Amino acid sequence: MDMDIMEIIDMMEESISKASTVPLTGKIMMDKDELLDYIQEIRLVYPDQLKEAKWVKTERQRILDEAEERADTIKRSAEEQQEKLIDEHEITRQAYEKAEAIKDMSERDARDIKMDTDRYVDEMLADVEHRLDLLLRKVREDREEHMNN
Q1: Total-model pTM
Q2: CA 78, CA 65: separation in Å to the nearest integer?
Q3: Rounded to an integer, what distance in angstroms lies between the CA atom of residue 98 and that of residue 92?
Q4: Is 122's pLDDT higher than 80?
Q5: What is the pLDDT of residues 15-74, one digit of tens each?
Q6: pLDDT for residue 147 is more than 90
Q7: For burial by CB atoms within 10 Å, which of 8, 44, 94, 123 has the most?
Q8: 3-state secondary structure (DSSP) of residue 123
Q9: What is the helix (H) or strand (E) element at residue 29, kind and residue range?
Q10: CA 45, CA 48: separation in Å to the nearest integer?
Q11: DSSP string for residues in 43-92
């Protein structure tokens, strides 16, 4: 039967409480061999329980270390994911900014082209108008000359 130290101590305590008392001294009489047997049992059980306690402590520490390592891994993974999302957000923001800049530049270029085109058309029309004026004057002069002859 495997006993633990506490059970042996309980048995010793029970033997002490049942032991005969020496009158007027407060001392008890106990069987020396019985007490030595209890001590021997403690010595036999103690190493196994100490090993078990050490194993429990080691196992507990291993589990705590493993849990901490897993927590660190999860934290690192979350931080990497967060950085990735931040990077993706930054890339998206930069893409929107670039697209907006390209759109603004395209609108500005379109306005400039329209203004240049309007100016060119106006110059061409002014030139046509000027030639038509010259032609019209020439026609009037020729008519007047023709009427005066």
Answers
A1: 0.38
A2: 20
A3: 10
A4: yes
A5: 988 888 888 888 888 889 998 988 888 888 787 777 888 889 999 999 999 999 999 999
A6: no
A7: 8
A8: helix
A9: strand 27-29
A10: 6
A11: HHHHHHHHHHHHHHHHHHHHHHHHHHHHHHHHHHHHHHHHHHHHHHHHHH
Check the CA dihedral 25-31-35-36 and report its sign. positive
Backbone angles phi, psi at 24, to 5 degrees: 65, 10
- The type of residue at 42 is I
- Across the range 102-107, mean pLDDT stands at 92
Residue type, 117: T
Distance CA 70, CA 58 (A): 18
List of residues 6+ apart from 44 with CB closer than 8 A = none
Report how far apart, in Å, the C-alpha atoms of 132 and of each of 36, 119, 139 are.
Answer: 140, 19, 10
Q: Is the pLDDT of residue 1 over 60?
A: no
Comparing CA positions, the residue from 57, 56, 9, 59 lying closest to residue 35 is 9
